[in-house]
């Protein structure tokens, strides 16, 4: 369970596992107001009534786990996260099943990835058990915020920040872990309609030995300017090439990318240390193998994409992530070129993989891989 490294000081004196104190909100939204939000949640716009906080110091380790009313953090202006960006986050979803029960998907994978991100950002590691417990605590107080309309969910956002007031550049001695939750519909406004993607050749998301494999705010901050260029070019997301040679496809601003070759092969860029190891990515590869497809993790070039579309070898392209689920990609645009048709219909394999994944997540298919964890019991 522990992935302690030499930079890990998290377990020094922590009580393990943590127990959570609850201060209920006295001003939680009324049912009617909540229902109005859940009827059209959008993505990342509304937040539930409570949040989780766990403090960490070098001397005490993790301590003072609590669930409190949702509200602003009080941060000293000298907090190191505000200056040096020592921050990591995760994203996972709570799904309501037809019988009303609430489940999440492979939370231990998010917990382990957060431990790896923490190691890279010189932050303390939270145990898998405490991570999962923090999610359960959110659902215990705000379970009514898990929507029940098709393909909606409660998006859970655990994050960790360095909140020591100190301007020297070193790993902070004081850290906070938090969980907030936000009811979610489709990440892209047009749902599963194919999106256009902008190829960034001016900017990289990650470099060799950098933080590309970590889920840290800095990676996303670096993607925002190229993401604006994507919008300016009528595209929904930006695609990055590897920072070293600028020839291989890495990933989108916030999602992994897959190519279907013919009807039986799925190809995705291999993990190089600069690509985020997506939980959805891993699950899609498993579902593809289950249906007899060959899965290749390897380098993919833009030329291969262009030639593959031209020859008909590449039949479908899609993006995937917790927020995006599985989203078809219709076209890649770059400076002076376009690959694929903007109005191409979503591919059959893309839609079938999306359907199977969401059927498992929403309890409509048996959980044959043991991916689900019940949150409300
Ligand atoms: C997720 O898919 O959970 C992410 O963190 C991506 C983010 C850009 C919304």
TrEMBL record:
Record InterPro entries: Aminotrans_IV (IPR001544), Aminotrans_IV_CS (IPR018300), Aminotransferase-like (IPR036038), B_amino_transII (IPR005786), BCAT-like_C (IPR043132), BCAT-like_N (IPR043131), BCAT_family (IPR033939)
Catalytic reactions on record: L-leucine + 2-oxoglutarate = 4-methyl-2-oxopentanoate + L-glutamate; L-valine + 2-oxoglutarate = 3-methyl-2-oxobutanoate + L-glutamate; L-isoleucine + 2-oxoglutarate = (S)-3-methyl-2-oxopentanoate + L-glutamate
N6-(pyridoxal phosphate)lysine sites (modified residues): 215
Cofactor section: pyridoxal 5'-phosphate
Pathway linked to the protein: Amino-acid biosynthesis; L-valine biosynthesis; L-valine from pyruvate: step 4/4; Amino-acid biosynthesis; L-leucine biosynthesis; L-leucine from 3-methyl-2-oxobutanoate: step 4/4; Amino-acid biosynthesis; L-isoleucine biosynthesis; L-isoleucine from 2-oxobutanoate: step 4/4
Keywords: Amino-acid biosynthesis, Aminotransferase, Branched-chain amino acid biosynthesis, Pyridoxal phosphate, Transferase
Pfam families tied to this protein: Aminotran_4
CDD domains documented for this protein: BCAT_beta_family
GO BP: any one term: L-valine biosynthetic process
One GO MF term: L-valine-2-oxoglutarate transaminase activity
Known EC number: 2.6.1.42
Protein's UniProt keywords contain rRNA-binding: no
Membership in a protein family: Belongs to the class-IV pyridoxal-phosphate-dependent aminotransferase family.
Protein known as: Branched-chain-amino-acid aminotransferase
Organism: Cryobacterium melibiosiphilum
